[in-house]
């Protein structure tokens, strides 16, 4: 058994820490509760730390578990931030946009022109006449 911890191990840990039960964590992760138990037990062994106290009502973080939770939760936020910043940067929109608007509306003409200048490859047409803006 290798001692490397994957991000998925931390995802399982976070779910149990947040939801408090293996069943709820399993449902959220769309896996069986026994899979969740196996993953958090393996994580604890890899880290050589007891992460949870088990009670009839569910799982509660130990001091080590709470320390790890705070750190991993911060990392999760950073990862999600990176995804938000990067996602869609290489998407290129192209095609035609049709609109129906009152004739000679200066606001829409300004928006349409700015969009066209920014994207350069989107054609915007008036719906009723088919003329390019």
Label the CATH architecture of the largest domain: Orthogonal Bundle
Q: How many domains comprise the coordinates?
A: 2
Q: How many H/I helical runs? A: 5
- Fraction of residues in helix: 55-70%
Give the number of DSSP strands.
4
Q: Estimate the mean pLDDT confidence.
A: 81
Strand adjacency order, main sheet = 1-2
As for the CATH topology of the largest domain, it is Arc Repressor Mutant, subunit A
Radius of gyration equals 26 Å
Topology order in helix (H) and strand (E) letters? HHHEEHEHE
Which CATH class of the largest domain?
A: Mainly Alpha
What's the CATH H-level superfamily name of the largest domain? Winged helix-like DNA-binding domain superfamily/Winged helix DNA-binding domain
Decide which structural class fits the backbone. Answer: alpha+beta
Q: How widely separated are the two ends?
A: 64 Å
Tell me the β content: 5-15%
Low-confidence stretches: none
Summarize the main sheet: 2 strands, antiparallel
Instruction: Give the overall shape.
Output: elongated
Protein described:
Helix content is 56%, strand content 14%. The chain has 2 domains: 7-86, Arc Repressor Mutant, subunit A; 95-126, no CATH class. The chain has 133 residues and is an alpha+beta fold. It has 5 helices and 4 strands. It has a two-stranded antiparallel sheet with strand order 1-2. It starts with 6 loop residues before the first helix and ends in a 7-residue tail after the last strand. The chain has helices at residues 7-19, 22-29, 33-47, 63-86, 106-119; strands at 52-55, 58-61, 95-99, 122-126.
């Amino acid at each position: 058994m290798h001692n490397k911890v994957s991000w998925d191990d931390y995802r399982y840990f976070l779910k149990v820490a947040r939801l408090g039960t293996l069943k709820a964590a399993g449902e959220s992760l769309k896996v069986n509760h026994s899979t969740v138990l196996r993953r958090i037990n393996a994580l604890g062994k890899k880290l050589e730390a007891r992460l949870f106290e088990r009670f009839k009502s569910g799982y509660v973080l130990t001091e080590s578990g709470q320390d790890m939770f705070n750190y991993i939760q911060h990392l999760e936020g950073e990862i999600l931030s990176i995804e938000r910043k990067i996602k869609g940067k290489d998407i290129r929109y192209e095609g035609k946009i049709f609109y129906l608007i009152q004739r000679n509306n200066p606001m829409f003409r300004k928006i349409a022109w700015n969009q066209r200048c920014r994207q350069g490859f989107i054609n915007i047409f008036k719906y009723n006449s088919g003329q390019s803006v």
